[in-house]
Amino acid sequence: MSAIQTGTSFHIASALEAITDPARPSILGDYAVDGTAMLGVIRIAQDRTHGFWERHDGGDELLVILQGRCTMTLRPAQGPEKAHELGPGDALLIPKGVAHSGKLHTPEARILFITPREGNTEWND
C-alpha cells in the first residue's frame, strides 16, 4: 500500500495513544523510494516558502513537524489539490511525484524529513 495521491497525515502522539496492544505496532503507511534517501532536519523561515514548490520523482517524502505550524498543499498530476494543516507532532507522507508547497503560519518551522536523494525538482510559482 502506498500513500494516496493527496498524501497521508497523522498526529504521532494520537497514533501512539490508539495502540491497544503494546506488543504490536500501528502501521501508519508505507514509504517507497527507488534508491537511497536522506534523513535530516531543516529550519525554514516564513519568507522562504512563498511560491516555492517541489516534487520528488525518486520516491515518497516524509515530513515530521517538530516546531511551528504550516499548511502543506499537495498537487497531484491528476485529481484535486489537498491542504494538510500541520503542527508539532504531526507527520505528512507525500507520495512519489506529487508536487507540494508549504505556507508557514509561524515565523519558522523545524522539520525532520526523509526524502529521496535523487529525482528532486524545485521551482517558484
TrEMBL record:
Gene3D superfamilies xrefs: Jelly Rolls
Recorded superkingdom: Bacteria
Domain Cupin type-2 stretches: 51-108
SUPFAM superfamilies linked to this entry: RmlC-like cupins
Protein name in the entry: Cupin domain-containing protein
